[in-house]
Each structure stands twice: as C-alpha cells, then as structure tokens.
Amino acid sequence: MPESPLVVRRVDFADPHDTRDYLHLLDAYARDPMGGGAALSDTVLERLPRDLRRHPGAYCLMAEQDGEAVGFATCFLGYSTFLARPLLN
After folding, report:
1. I need a labelling partner for 40 at 20 to 30 A (CA). Which of 1, 21, 23, 78 fits?
2. Count of Cβ atoms closer than 10 Å to residue 45 Cβ
3. Alpha-carbon distance 64 to 71, whole Å?
4. Residue 59 contacts residue 10 (beta carbons within 8 Å)
5. How far is it, in rounded angstroms, from Cα 44 to Cα 56?
6. Tell me, what's the pLDDT at 64?
7. What residue ranges of the chain have pLDDT lower than 70?
8. Long-range contacts of the stretch 9-12 (C-beta < 8 A, 24+)
9. DSSP result, 36-67
10. pLDDT at position 8, please?
C-alpha cells in the first residue's frame, strides 16, 4: 500500500497542536549534536511561539504525513545584496 503524501504547510501558532508539534521537533533538533546537543530552555520554549508569530519576516513550515508532524523549517525573509532581491533563509 503506498504511503500517504507528505503535506507541507505554515505553522499556525494560534493552534496549540501546531505549536506543540513545532516545539517538539525544534527541541529534538536542538538536542541532536547537529543542533548543538542541548535542550531548549523553558524560557525559549515559552517565548518562541509568540515571538515568531509577531516577527514579520518569519515563515515556519511543518511537514506532516498521515497527520503526524515529521519535519519543520524555520525561515526568515531577508534581502540579497548580491542579487538585489528578497530571499528566504
């Protein structure tokens, strides 16, 4: 039986389920050696959803498969001086 498609969408920080899934994935990455090897502090976990929701250049994406969060991306709108146009990091 084929797997269901991967769905990628913006995180809705007004939705407690989205917020919980995003923070869980971000903290798991932070705990990994590639993310620094340390858990995020309670202060960061508390402030981050509010701050990202308010940041005008933040784009947080969630990847889901079968209704389960399986990946995320945190991107920020910037500007390339080399290309003289907006970019998404």
Report:
1. 78
2. 16
3. 7
4. yes
5. 19
6. 97
7. 1-2
8. 9/61, 9/62, 9/64, 10/59, 10/60, 10/61, 10/62, 11/52, 11/60, 11/61, 11/62, 11/72
9. TSSPPPHHHHHHHHHHHHH-TTEEEEEEEETT
10. 97
Residue 1 has what pLDDT?
A: 53
Q: What is the CA radius of gyration of the chain?
A: 15
Residue 60: both structure tokens together? 């947080």
Q: What is the pLDDT of residue 37?
A: 97
Q: Position 37: which residue type?
A: G
Residue showing tokens 């250049």: 57
Which amino acid is it at 62? Answer: M
Task: Give the per-residue pLDDT at 2.
Answer: 58
